[in-house]
Design brief:
This protein has about 350 residues and is of the alpha/beta class. About 45% of the residues lie in helices and about 10% in strands. The chain has one domain: P-loop containing nucleotide triphosphate hydrolases (Rossmann fold, 3-Layer(aba) Sandwich), CATH 3.40.50.300. Bound molecules: 3'-phosphate-adenosine-5'-phosphate sulfate (PPS).
């Protein structure tokens, strides 16, 4: 009876202890599971939000890894595209370096403002390989076309970014629109500005090649480039030629921003030495040089550098067919006249830039 009493007396205690033990383990495990689920849900959520607006544009020129080849002109189109290819970039990696978990939409700290046909898409796609860069895939055209929509709209267009990540977008038209420098300045006095410049004659032909591919009935390059072909008077108001007056456009930017806040990329070197040019941009943005020559290879068929492993894909990839296309053939005499026309403008631009781009 005594033995029974002792056993009877001790058993519930032992059971209670075991129960308590199990409860402790179970609650620790559930806390652990809950935390894991919470963290994973947080990561997925930012990815899903980013992916949800990742639709191909109406023209269907998307290729995996090179998301937004075409300029997006209408506001509705802007709203329909995002930066899905880049969504996976948020999360663990950056957090391990001590950044905050919560990704938010912020106004851009860097802009690729031009120039059209300079190589702006290539630069943006190369830069987005960097884990500390979050770039909008489409061209929002905020400062030139959609300014009335306000900064909240602009912010809502941006990809989510963690603290420490640089948010950026590219709209090549910004460089040449008169109102843009003041508007950009009103948004931020510290914003970093990047311009990819290319020989204005080649750039003009590239521009014309794109125009004629969309509207094959337009007059010849030669007839549009001259006011009077016989006297050789150039029509500098014709958009493909006017865009190439870089000094004139740059002057407007320098009225609002110091030269040190602008970085010029050689469009020619971006093709011959992409890693070198992207390296300098990373320095300018105050980032570690993470995108290097190991990311590129030269594709002989395309005739351009391509990415070994673009963001969101494990396969090598080149830019789409609207980039690096065969140019319209232009009378060499006309080419020479254009080179002569641009010579003083280019010299002025080199002085302003403090950099000689070597255009002949
Ligand atoms: N890696 C790579 N692959 C393909 N194309 C490259 C590359 N790097 C620079 N380029 C040059 O980029 C030119 C197009 O410039 P943009 O992207 O600025 O054009 S756009 O303004 O966005 O329409 C495009 O002009 P075109 O050759 O006239 O098609 C290219 O010369």
């Amino acid at each position: 009876m005594a033995a029974f009493c002792t056993r009877h007396h001790h058993l519930p205690n032992a059971d209670l202890r075991r129960l308590f033990h199990r409860l402790t383990i179970a609650s620790s495990l559930s806390i652990l599971c809950f935390s894991l689920v919470y963290l994973l849900a947080g990561c997925c959520q930012s990815g899903l939000v980013e992916n949800s607006d990742s639709k191909p544009n109406a023209l269907g020129f998307l290729t995996p890894g090179w998301p937004y080849e075409r300029n997006v002109t209408g506001a509705s189109k802007v709203a329909s595209v995002g930066d899905g290819a880049f969504a996976a970039q948020t999360g663990m990696e950056s957090n391990s370096s001590g950044k905050e978990w919560t990704a938010t939409r912020r106004l851009p700290q860097a802009l690729i403002i031009g120039v059209k046909k300079g190589g702006t898409r290539a630069l943006l796609e190369f830069l987005r390989l960097h884990p500390d860069i979050r770039a909008l895939g489409s061209e929002p055209h905020f400062f030139d076309r959609h300014y009335a929509r306000g900064l909240d709209w602009y912010r809502s267009m941006m990809p989510k970014a963690l603290n420490g990540q640089i948010v950026m977008e590219k709209t090549p038209r910004y460089f040449v629109t008169v109102e843009t420098p003041a508007r950009v300045h009103a948004m931020s006095q510290e914003v970093k500005l990047i311009v990819v410049v290319r020989d204005p004659v080649t750039r003009a032909i590239s521009d014309y090649t794109q125009i004629i591919s969309k509207t094959p009935d337009i007059p010849s390059f030669e007839s549009l480039a001259f006011k009077n072909r016989t006297t050789g008077l150039i029509d500098a108001q014709w958009s493909p030629l006017w865009i190439g007056l870089y000094a004139q456009h740059m002057e407007r930017w320098l009225a609002w921003f110091p030269r040190s806040q602008m970085h010029l990329v050689s469009g020619e070197s971006l093709i011959t030495d992409p890693a070198g040019e992207v390296g300098k941009v990373q320095d300018f943005l105050g980032l570690q040089r993470i995108v290097t020559d190991k990311h590129f290879y030269f594709n002989k068929t395309k005739g351009f550098p391509c990415l070994k492993k673009p963001e969101g894909s494990s396969k090598p990839h080149c830019l789409g067919k609207t980039k690096g296309r065969t140019h319209a053939s232009i009378d060499p005499e006309v080419m020479q006249k254009l080179r002569d026309f641009y010579k003083p403008h280019n010299q002025h631009f080199y002085q302003m830039a403090g950099q000689d781009f070597g255009w002949q």
